[in-house]
Automatic annotation (TrEMBL):
InterPro entries: YwiC. It holds the Pfam family YwiC. The lineage of its organism: Bacteria, Bacillati, Actinomycetota, Actinomycetes, Micrococcales. Keywords: Membrane, Transmembrane, Transmembrane helix. It comes from Jonesia denitrificans (strain ATCC 14870 / DSM 20603 / BCRC 15368 / CIP 55.134 / JCM 11481 / NBRC 15587 / NCTC 10816 / Prevot 55134) (Listeria denitrificans). The chain crosses the membrane at residues 20-40, 52-69, 75-92, 99-117, 129-147, 159-177, 189-206, 218-235. It comes from the Bacteria. This is YwiC-like protein.
Length: 236
């Protein structure tokens, strides 16, 4: 979830040297974010705070490089700020495994795609970029629902139905986007993306009935993510 949006954004925006400090800041900031979540869930116990401080300080250096070179990136703080605060509140109330927090995290991670794209050497095709962003976000929200039906919410009828209905809805989206002349996909490409989402929908229907270990679920998600990256980059 951290790598896919960043990778796609870098490639479709055109690789630039500023993407190097951006990537370093992005990953280290996530480490700080994760450590902060543990600290908040612990009731802010002192022994959990040192990793937060260290990762935050390390992230500052590459983050400043990006901000100095491309100061327009600071506008994104207005978008990421509420998402981070919302997730911090969830962690404070020990709701870090809630659907709300998962969606907030997915949205924040997905938005790295337009950030990386905007800092690229040859950013273009803005409509296609936003459709790519929406497709990545939609995929990862589906992943949240699917993984819950496989592990934490296994056996929950509500989550199972929500996951299946959500994935079936995604099958139609590529055909809707194909109507846009400046969009990411056209008729042929729409069928390919629809086939991908159909397979995900079938997985959402079948796999919770079959079951699987967390490792198996994780490996499946890695495979699906790689396929999505190939399809997105191929569509460009």
């Amino acid at each position: 979830m951290l790598t896919v949006p960043l990778l796609v954004g870098v490639v479709v925006g055109g690789p630039a040297w500023v993407h190097v400090p951006l990537a370093v800041a992005w990953y280290v900031a996530y480490f700080a974010f994760f450590a902060a979540g543990l600290w908040l869930r612990s009731g802010r116990k002192a022994r959990y705070f040192p990793p937060v401080r260290v990762y935050a300080l390390v992230a500052v250096v590459p983050g400043l490089v990006v901000c100095v070179v491309r100061p327009e990136v600071l506008w994104w703080a207005l978008v990421f700020g509420p998402l981070v605060v919302g997730s911090a509140v969830c962690s404070h109330y020990r709701a870090d495994r809630s659907l709300l927090n998962d969606v907030l995290t997915v949205v924040a991670a997905t938005l790295m795609l337009p950030v990386a794209w905007s800092l690229g050497s040859t950013p273009g095709h803005e409509v296609a970029m936003w459709q790519s962003t929406a497709m990545v976000g939609a995929y990862f929200v589906g992943t949240v629902l699917y993984v819950k039906t496989m592990i934490r919410e296994r056996g929950s009828r509500m989550y199972y139905v929500a996951s299946v209905v959500y994935h079936l809805m995604l099958v139609v989206v590529p055909f809707v986007w194909a109507q846009s002349e400046r969009g990411l996909v056209h008729e042929g490409g729409a069928a390919i993306f629809a086939a991908f989402f159909t397979l995900l929908a079938a997985r959402a229907v079948i796999m919770p009935q079959v079951g699987g270990t967390p490792r198996q679920v994780g490996m499946g998600e890695i495979g699906a993510s790689l396929v999505l990256v190939v399809l997105l980059l191929g569509a460009w």
